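WARN  no MSA supplied for this record, continuing single-sequence
INFO  ligand: adenosine-5'-diphosphate
INFO  echoing inputs
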Amino acid sequence: MKVIIMKISDLGGEFSLIDRLVKKVESDLLIEGIGDDAAVIRWTDDQHLLVTTDMLLDGDHFNTEWYTPYQIGWKSMVANLSDIAAMGGEPMFSFVSIAIPDDMEVEFLDGLYEGMQAATDRYGGAIVGGDTTHGKVLSINIAVLGIVAPEHLCRRGDAEVGDLICVTGPLGGSWGGLELLFKDIREGTTKHLEPDCRLDISSKLAPHVNAMIDVSDGLASEVRHICHMSGTGAVVHHEKVPLHPDAISAGKRLNKDPYRWALGGGEDFELVFTIPPGLLSKVEGFGVIVIGEILPKNEGIQLMKDGESTVLSGGYDHFSE
Ligand code: ADP
Ligand code: MG
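INFO  complex generated
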């Protein structure tokens, strides 16, 4: 028998892999399974349960040379809390599982938990469980449970043709900071090392918006997720994409295009959402920026730059080449 060895990148990346591995589940209790920022489970008549999990590994998602232990803890928790924000929900409880190398100092772990707890103090989602084991590299897996009122649930698949596409703040700062860190420059890297999530405004946006997602893999990738799940197309206007000041200054310093980081970088943890034009006035006070529009599916997913339309490409995938 001929053995065919396939690489994950041959499959088309992370999302095709998950499709291949995991069986679809049918349950009256499951409102949203795989495919959104969090799973949505029917809980009570006036609350859905949200469940999300993310894993971060030393040497891949962070390293101990650039990050303080506090920053590793903070960012790990914020990355998870951001997915609850993206569903329009409120975080309730977190579970933290860590694999610790044998030679790791207790003081390092003190700092790690100070960072995680500072994030839950700020945004909610107190740590109530987890698991501790040893491993070759420090790895941190966090699961967060949250709640959302059914009428405030914001799924990736709820965009409608004619909706405006908005972002909650400037983008590209995280990846710009990473590029600086690669060059041993520390100035202008806070957005990368210690990002915030938008739980400060997400529940205020939720009653008005249709689809929502957080920017963990780059704006282009997030808009494509909304379109694929909603069965729509979209246009994003290049000149309207807001750049984070760290992205602008890193771009100048390194002579690189900061829009590439905004569209394809990720870990900015702002929110991208769609809203009917008539409801925009309800959210304008939160500093949101309109960057495009949801189109019918047959118009594709476009980036409009200088009057010319191209395919909206870019976005981070752990397994693409
Ligand atoms: P996010 O970037 O918002 O955290 P991900 O890209 O990590 O979302 O995940 C997308 C979807 O795929 C989510 O619904 C997540 O639960 C699911 N998923 C990711 N990895 C796996 C896996 N190994 N097994 C099952 N589901 C997974
Ligand atoms: Mg997400």
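Residues 37, 83, 86, 214, 216 surround magnesium ion (ligand 2) (CB under 6 Å).
INFO  checksum written, moving to next record
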